[in-house]
């Protein structure tokens, strides 16, 4: 059995897909268990190849009794698989089970030391080198590395080849969500990543004037923001889908969308996974760390620096990020859609 820790969000799971697929391909006979938040379940199912989701909302102590055996760590032999030797925790609970730790734990969560310590006692820990976490094996962490490349490199160091372009998710059933809409997603868990609501509203209005059927998405906690953007754009209340879709429905909405416009957040990664034209607004984190593949011209990225904001190149300031002009975003929309028509 292989346990993988990635107890984060939508974009974090999406950028780990190539690494998860590599583990599945490298060990097809092993049980592959992902420790991640329970609410990600619909998206985990769309990754494919993951046998179980172990609901894990945060980092804590090891969820198993740490063994004291002096046996050297090893990769498990290929086998017919089977159920993990512990009960899966109910949604909302941190991972806890009786019985022995897994033979292999893979830290796709972070650089440590807390995530390393949480996996202590596994037969073998596949992770970045972190002496503070008691782990001196593995490659060194690089701050400036793209998130997809980071985990592919970790596995490559351990002899498992991963394809960084393997980002596609399974297409969900369309269900009750509309098709062919333009998704405007103004929210983000990180306040500094949010383009101002009034600019999103101005953009949505001009897209609607061009014939786009615009919907505004977000979490339940972002419904007020989405309603404000829709009202400023002159959109009907029915265009506000924030808080009205679960994660599986959001994935279906994006998969069937005409266009996605969002900040540096999970919805942008869904657009990448489904090869839907997108305009992603990055600031202050550079797209070189979290952006879509640069060889896909239908994904346009605007970083709040250089010509994108009419300033000099360099790391963007908060004021420059907020000043990203609507006309520049509209031009990027044209560029993204033109690549699909050609």
Which tags fit this structure?
elongated; 5-stranded parallel β-sheet; single chain; 12 helices; 31% helix; 342 residues; alpha/beta
Could you report the average pLDDT, rounded to the nearest whole number? 86
Number of helices: 12
Largest β sheet strand count, sense and barrel closure:
5 strands, parallel
Q: How large a portion of the residues is in β-strands, by DSSP E?
A: 5-15%
C-alpha-based Rg, rounded: 21 Å
Which structural class best describes the helix and strand composition? Answer: alpha/beta
Give the overall form: elongated
Helix-strand sequence:
EHHEHEEHEHEHEHHEHEHEHH
Strand order across the largest sheet? 3-2-1-4-5
Distance between the termini: 47 Å
DSSP, total strands? 10
**Poorly predicted runs:** 67-94, 309-313
- Percent of residues in helices comes to 25-40%
How is this fold's topology laid out?
Elements: E1 2-5, H1 10-15, H2 17-26, E2 32-36, H3 41-47, E3 52-55, E4 104-107, H4 114-118, E5 124-126, H5 147-157, E6 182-185, H6 197-209, E7 214-216, H7 223-233, H8 247-255, E8 259-263, H9 266-273, E9 278-282, H10 287-290, E10 299-303, H11 318-322, H12 326-341
Parallel strand pairs: 1-2, 1-4, 2-3, 4-5, 6-7, 6-8, 8-9, 9-10
């Amino acid at each position: 059995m292989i346990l993988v820790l990635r107890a984060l969000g939508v974009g974090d799971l999406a950028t780990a897909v190539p690494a998860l697929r590599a583990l599945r391909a490298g060990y097809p006979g092993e049980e592959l268990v992902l420790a991640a938040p329970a609410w990600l379940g619909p998206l985990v199912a769309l990754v494919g190849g993951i046998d179980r989701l172990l609901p894990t909302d945060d980092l804590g102590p090891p969820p198993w009794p740490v063994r004291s055996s002096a046996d050297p760590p090893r990769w498990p032999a290929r086998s017919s698989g089977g159920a993990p030797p512990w009960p899966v925790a109910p949604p909302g609970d941190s991972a806890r089970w009786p019985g022995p730790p897994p033979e292999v734990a893979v830290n796709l969560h972070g650089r440590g030391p807390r995530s390393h310590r949480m996996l202590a006692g596994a037969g073998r820990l596949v992770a970045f080198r972190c002496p503070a976490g008691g782990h001196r094996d593995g490659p060194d962490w690089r701050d400036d590395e793209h998130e997809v490349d980071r985990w592919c490199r970790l596995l490559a160091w351990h002899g498992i080849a991963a394809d960084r372009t393997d980002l596609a998710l399974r297409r969900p059933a369309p269900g009750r969500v509309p098709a062919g809409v333009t998704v405007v997603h103004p929210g983000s868990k990180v306040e500094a990543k949010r383009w101002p609501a009034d600019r999103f509203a101005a953009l949505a209005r001009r897209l609607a004037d061009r014939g786009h059927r615009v919907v505004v998405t977000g979490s339940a906690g972002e419904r007020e923001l989405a309603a404000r953007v829709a009202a400023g754009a002159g959109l009907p209340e029915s265009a506000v889908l924030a808080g009205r879709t679960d994660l599986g429905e959001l994935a279906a909405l994006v998969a069937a969308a005409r266009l996605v416009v969002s900040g540096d957040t999970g919805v942008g990664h869904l657009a990448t996974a489904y090869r839907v034209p997108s305009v992603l607004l990055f600031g202050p984190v550079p797209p070189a760390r979290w952006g879509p593949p640069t060889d896909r011209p239908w994904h346009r990225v605007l970083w709040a620096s250089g010509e994108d904001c009419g300033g000099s190149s360099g790391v963007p300031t908060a004021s420059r990020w907020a000043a990203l002009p609507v006309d520049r975003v509209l031009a990027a929309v044209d560029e993204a859609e033109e690549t699909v028509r050609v």
